[in-house]
Amino acid sequence: MRSSGYSVTERSDINCRPANQDTLTEQIIGLAIEVHRALGPGLLESAYEQCLCFELESHGIPFRRQYPLAVTYKSVKLDCGYKIDILVDEAVDVELKTVEKLLPIHDAQLLTYLKLSGMRTGLLLNFNAPVLKDGIRRRVM
Fold it and tell me: Is residue 90 assigned to a domain?
């Protein structure tokens, strides 16, 4: 994995959209399930993030880790320290969690990040679920 946290390609336009985001989110979910099957629940979020990024890179899927997300307030962009866990192909915000269960605040975070970034598609993945498919939420704005 590249130490910079960037993979394969970098685009300057965060609003670029792949032709089929359904296919992209299916690929991401499939790779996340592969990571979860290998590791199971109980690790830190950072371990799952690194492993998922390894899988994305291995499959030639472009991504950025810990992508900075500015807050625009009264037409001024402010760096408030927010980061997208994994930005996949400049189009999908992937937020990782390792919590007992997903709560409405987790959905609110994802929806707010989508709004701030101008992206339409986001995945919320809770790796602490016994079966990962029970810890997946896909949101489209």
Answer: yes
Q: How far is CA 17 from CA 7, 24, 56, 141, in A?
A: 17, 10, 17, 14
Q: Is residue 130 assigned to a domain?
A: yes
Place of tokens 């001024």: 76
What are the 10-residue block averages of pLDDT along the chain, 141 residues in total? Answer: 38 46 94 98 98 98 97 94 97 98 97 95 97 96 90
Other beta carbons within 10 Å of 89: 21
How many distinct structural domains can be found in the chain? 1
Report pTM. Answer: 0.84
Residue 111: which domain range? 21-140
Per DSSP bridges, beta strands 76-88 and 63-73 are antiparallel
Q: How far apart are CA 55 and CA 29, in angstroms?
A: 11
Residue 21's pLDDT is: 82
Whether residue 56 lies inside any domain: the answer is yes
